[in-house]
Amino acid sequence: MKTILFGLDGATYTVLDHMVAQGVMPNFQKFREESTSCRLRSTPLPITPQAWTTLATGRSAGNHGMHDFLRYEPTQDGVYFRVNDYRTIAVETIWQYVSDQGKRVTVLNFFGTAPPPKINGHVMPGFVPPKHLRRSSHPSDLFAKLQHVDGFDVNVLGLDTNIEKMGLQKLDPDQWVEWIDLHIRREKAWYGILDHLMRTEPSDLTAIVFDGVDKIQHLAYRYLDPSTIPGNPLDWEKKVIERCKVYFKQIDDFLGAVVKRAGKWARMFIASDHGFTVTTEIVYVNKFLADHGYLTWRGEVAEDAKEAVFVDKLPNLVSAIDLKKTKAFAMTPSCNGIYINRQHLSEAEANQVRDELIEKLYKLKGPDGGLVVTEIKKREDWWPGPYTERAPDLTLTLRDHGLISILNGKAQVVPREEPAGTHHPHGVLLGRGPGIVEGQELEVRDIIEVPQLLLHSLGLEIPGDYEGSFPANFYEPEYLASDPPRKTHGAVAATASAAAGDDANLDEDEEAAIMERLRGLGYLE
Ligand SMILES: [Zn+2]
């Protein structure tokens, strides 16, 4: 059966329900009434690359290899980072698998789909600079065909360094509306492509991500969550609240139109890669490590005076840490983790440092005296598989789900001046269509199970090495008895890199553009 995945990056019921209550999202409200819905547990590190890749492979990151935006590579002379892309994914994606089964697939705006897999269908990736969007699209004439579509604007669709340089958390109040409007235009451009392809060359599996939900929540979460919306907003805040509603209203219009186009005889799933919540403090992990004697700064390193200060360039941070005199360090906030400096320690020393850190981190207190670290994940426990080492040694969950700061701070834990948005492990999943129970609310399912729903819906076998189980409770039991999920024996072996294009590595422009975006989102804070 034709199947649609309507991806909303970072969508959370807290905000969606608020929008419904305000009358902004009637189509979402109707969709929910007609669907089975639940919270969707994200990957153990709830961030975009890992979570969408797990959704697209049915595998955990220890097996698919896409842990983070960046890949940390220690060498004898220092530390390198590479930006992950489609070739990072070590197992077959559903895009490739569904195509190999003779069906057509459309994949739009997913992180890490460049260079594009040569599938039967269409790929236009997200996170690609405008000047490379043409060559990153598949088939090679797709870009040319789409240029006449209403709203098509390569500078809006692509990852424009100049726009990303606006740097979200440095935005002046009078720039907020402009930033939100940019994402309104951006989603319109992506929707134009989706609508055009659904009308002219419909696929069996159509998947799109609208990523503005994540961007806008990073910036404006305190105006979206009823628990943090100011009682008496200032004039500029009123405008921001209004433009956010316009953004969500537009998403709702798109949803309504796609449901209509899909008709009765299609199944449609709405999923997010993670949820969102509010963060109220900053944890300076490298400051913690330095105070405890595990990290040595090279000379005087300025303390982060204001939470809006960013690392200008990652190499600056790398060179700010004296790695020869350092046993443990944090390098990127997006992985929320601590690396043990294994280049300079024996195995036994490294393990000892790790045990000590776990003990000390669980005792770390905030200014209010409360414990700050709620969970510490060892990489071998949470990311078993051939790519365990792409995870940092320890991954922290903080009490407010915030990302760590990698800068030096005036204290180990500092309250934020204003609450900000941060990823929450629980996102959303809703499914609607033949056989799916209407109006049912389930507790929670796991993101790793979503591709099983998609493949079953398409009438395909589920590869035997997919992790997690089929969410049978989405379906009427009688329906499922007549159309049970079928699993293949053993794995499907093809690798993504074998199927991907033959482009060389990302060039410097692309790397720079992606770094800018990460900085804009606060991931290089
Ligand atoms: Zn995301």
Provide the fold topology.
Layout: E1 2-8, H1 13-21, H2 26-33, E2 36-41, H3 48-57, H4 61-64, E3 70-75, E4 78-83, H5 94-100, E5 105-108, E6 121-124, H6 130-133, H7 142-146, H8 154-157, H9 161-164, H10 173-200, E7 205-210, H11 212-220, H12 235-262, E8 266-271, E9 275-283, H13 285-291, H14 314-320, E10 328-329, E11 337-340, H15 347-362, E12 373-378, H16 379-382, E13 394-398, E14 413-424, E15 426-432, E16 440-446, H17 450-457, H18 477-482, H19 496-499, H20 508-520
Parallel strand pairs: 1-7, 1-8, 2-16, 5-6, 5-7
Antiparallel strand pairs: 2-15, 3-4, 8-15, 9-14, 10-11, 11-13, 12-13
Residues 9-10, 48, 214, 273-274 line the site of zinc ion (ZN).
Notes on the structure:
This protein is of the alpha/beta class. Helix content is 35%, strand content 18%. It contains 20 helices and 16 strands. The chain has an eight-stranded mixed sheet with strand order 6-5-7-1-8-15-2-16, with helices on both faces. Strands 10-11-13-12 form a four-stranded antiparallel sheet. A hairpin with a 7-residue loop joins strand 10 and strand 11 (337-340). Helix 10 runs antiparallel to helix 11 (212-220) and helix 10 runs parallel beside helix 12 (235-262). It is globular, with a radius of gyration of 22 Å. It binds zinc ion (ZN). The site of zinc ion has 6 residues, from loops.
